[in-house]
Amino acid sequence: MANSINRRNWIKSSAMMAGGLAFFTGNISKLAAMPVLKTLKATTKRITDETVIMDALPVMKARLLANENPFGPSPAAKKAMADALDTSFQYPFMLTSQLSGKIAAYEGIHQSNIMMNAGSSPLLQAAAIHYSKGGKSIITGDPSYDDLPTHATMNGAVWVKVPLTKDYKLDLDAMEAKVDDNTGLVYICNPNNPTGTILDTEKLKGFCERVSKKTMVFVDEAYIDYLPDPQASTMIGCVKAGQNIIVARTFSKLYGFAGLRCGYIVAQPATIGIFSKYTEGSFNMSAVTVAAAIAGYRETDFLQEALKKTVASRDFLYATLKKEGYDYIPSSANFVMFPLKMDGQQFVSEMMKRGVGIRNWKFNGQDWCRVSIGRMDEMQAFADAFKQLS
Ligand SMILES: Cc1ncc(COP(=O)(O)O)c(C=O)c1O
């Protein structure tokens, strides 16, 4: 029962994320043609509309709604996972230390500057809770990744949203101008999700240096691995310089580990100490995931290949949009945003009916679509469905 409730909730939320239950209403007969329902009909006694809706996963031709990377994880990471099963009765202390040691060596920092976790999300949430204490404010771009500020507002924070510049970048000057005595944290997502835009590195460095003297600066670099030279753009150097900065990284994107859950922050040891009040850190990670991350970390050839495939699929998407007469925001990440010519919710729902999952946003009084970059067959499925609606 507990399982079925959990599954129901998951399906409910993913269906709503993909455009609401409206998609399912009136589509029962189409859904019934799907293999998953044929199996369901054959094996269960009483089927109601509700059980069909809740138990049917939409069969997606293209899953382009969560900025995942279908080109990962690497074969070496998969082999390491299989090998790690034999010793998975052991707690992963040694392994997690090996992983953070590898990261520290590559970045030229100390292990005490790193806290690992099951994805970067628990670390964003810890930051949200700590830095919003006492009704402090959290400054973010608008739109930007909203996980941290959303959790902060649940904790009583004031969310100060700063509109993007005309070219859809975070407006660093306007964000800096909003910093005051009540600011708990400034959240910078670079490249920015959902727009895919990047900041000028020198400008961001200057911002970090100045603003970190007044408040905590959290730089989320979830998508930095998609840049041609991440080392040239990272703000880890600001941590090395002793600044009051937190840099978040994840294996969920270019490494293709979203389902494995592996992420980390780089910060001053005292800041890492604060985080340990809120989370167990690397103890939240499975030995299997950590083994995969050790095998996959900085596996340059594989990562370059994944990047190449992403760029090819992204170029195909650009060409599709252009052909249909649409603009888009040039992206430095594995997703692309473009302005719609119809209602965003309706567009998501119509695309989902065609087996294509994407996301919509509304800002500047305009409906927008964000398409995550997938395999070429998924981008083709997007193109086919999009042509019917554009
Ligand atoms: C900007 C950004 N930060 C953090 C995350 C969370 O990633 P994870 O918890 O998988 O590491 C995401 C996920 O999409 C994201 O887009």
Task: Summarize the model shown.
The protein is of the alpha/beta class. It has helices at 2-17, 28-32, 35-43, 49-55, 75-84, 93-107, 121-131, 147-154, 172-178, 201-211, 230-233, 236-240, 269-275, 287-296, 300-323, 344-353, 376-389, and strands spanning 62-63, 114-117, 137-142, 158-163, 183-189, 216-220, 245-250, 263-266, 335-339, 356-357, 359-363, 366-372.
Question: How does this model look, in words?
Answer:
With 390 residues, the protein is of the alpha/beta class. The chain has two domains: 56 residues, no CATH class; 222 residues, Type I PLP-dependent aspartate aminotransferase-like (Major domain) (Aspartate Aminotransferase, domain 2), CATH 3.40.640.10. The chain is built from 17 helices and twelve strands. The strands form three sheets. Strands 2-8-7-6-5-3-4 form a seven-stranded mixed β-sheet, with helices on both faces. It has a three-stranded antiparallel β-sheet with strand order 9-12-11, covered by helices on one side. A hairpin with a 2-residue loop joins β11 and β12. The radius of gyration is 22 Å and the shape is globular. The N terminus is likely disordered.
